Amino acid sequence: MISEDEWLVVIDRQKVFAESEWSTWACADGTYYDTDESFGRLAKAFGERVAYTRYVPPEPPQDAWVEYFKDWPQFLVANDDPMYDFTDETAILAEGHPVVNRDTFCKWGTELAEAIRGAKRIVVCGVATDCCVLTTVLAAADSGVAVRVPADACAGSTPENQELALNAMRLFTPLITVTDTDAILE
User: Fold this and answer.
1) DSSP of the chain
2) Within 13 Å, how many C-alpha atoms sit on residue 12's CB side?
């Protein structure tokens, strides 16, 4: 059940993480698209209480990010490059909602907290479970926010990494609850 003060936070549902023909950052085996139905149901159920995030590359990379992007130079493009656009179905649902752009894995911070109007209960879905979802969920919980993670609305870099990340988040019960979309919508 969704409480009236709970928000949905949708992490990085972008083309760069979905389209495997050209992106080595895409979720394996098309698993990104396996989350479409659950994500859509959640986005519609939460109505106006949905915030979206987008990963954008640092301009320019600094500190440890310099070394990181030596392995991924093809992703150092302008923030408005089409690879960083939301996927089509996400773009439609995101219209009119707050969008937070961050050049870090973790999307939690002042800007996202303000976008969700200081809510202390959130549901987090998106990609990749083992990267941006995990770091965002841990940071939000660490700041005192109760987080639910619908596993069926999240995709990992691989199915194995998805399970590892979900199991890591389960270690933080009751601050973090790993569940599924049906349990949230009941």
Assistant:
1) ---TT-EEEEE--BHHHH-TTT-TTSPGGGHHHHTHHHHHHHHHHHTT-EEEEEE---SS--THHHHHTTS-GGG-S-TTSGGGSBPHHHHHHHTTS-EEEESSS---SHHHHHHTTT-SEEEEEEE-IIIIIHHHHHHHHHTT-EEEEEGGGEE-SSHHHHHHHHHHHHTTTTTEEEE-HHHHH-
2) 32
- Residue 49, both tokens: 């209480």
Task: List, for residues 116-172, the tens digit of each pLDDT value.
Answer: 999 999 999 999 999 999 999 999 999 999 999 999 999 999 999 999 999 999 999
Q: How many residues does the chain have?
A: 186
Between CA 28 and CA 174 the distance in angstroms is 30
CA-nearest of 111, 109, 96, 108 to 50 is 96
* Range 63-74 average pLDDT: 95
